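Both lines are given unchanged directly below:

***
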Amino acid sequence: MNLNKKGFLSYILLPISVAFYLLIKLRRALYRIGLLRTYSFDVPVIVVGNITVGGSGKTPIVIELIEHFLRQGKKVGAVSRGYGGEGSSESLLVNKDTDPLLSGDEPLLIATQTNAPVIVNTNRVQAVKDMIEGYDVEIIVSDDGLQHYSMGRAVEIAVVDGTRRFGNGFFLPSGPLREPVSRLKSVDFVINNGSMHPGEISSDLVPKMFINLSTLEQKDVNYFNNIKCHSIAGIGYPQRFFDTLTDLGVDVLPHPFPDHHFFSEDELEFNSKHPIIMTAKDCVKCRKFATNQMWYLLTETDLGEDFMTKLSNKL
């Protein structure tokens, strides 16, 4: 579908978008006046979400927050809906050995990289209750959930894609917006992923090393300089990953997939024997058929000590 057809379809769907917007306003009003209940918790909950559909880079920020508090000696847990998993109203504790078909890829990545307890439940309130009851945590970080107003929160962090921002500015299904842009005025922090914007905290993924999926061998970020590599990305904005690899000198053969795509072994079988590089999020779904041809790029998010201090002061 070309851009003109996409634009035409967006306008055709505008009546549905208007209805969606009115439902958003009504739902928020019902929570505001107390006809819908917001549950409070004894443990502070930090929500990391966005106001658009599609990946904005929330999960690496969740991981950085968890690791920051763990370094401080805090007991931290994470909750998630588990997008891409089977989904259940029963809480699932996720660890590095959990089947991603059950948990979804992002909760599995969080659990694998942080070793913190991660609970998946389509009922986020129940997930928080089970986390508090079962793991004696001091802080809970919610991966997504900005629109889940039944879950009380101490801090709201909205993540904005620095490149795509708010797309065409329309609400679902005509555009990417789940809430009006004015919603950003009510959150505690707005993090801009990949760019700079007044009033927003700039965040970038910092490449750290390449890690082999099969052998766990580690290589410097310059290891694939001027080497042709198949590049796999099943994330919200695959081009950002391909651009990162290009900046590292990789001769990229791009293979974009839909966000949260579950890979089969034959999808990663190419005629050529070039190395295969993927994101950490995709890596957790490919371990069961990993070969020494497969690598992933480990990255970190640097939010700065000033932000972390301001965040801690709100808890």
Observations:
- The first strand starts at residue 45 and ends at 49.
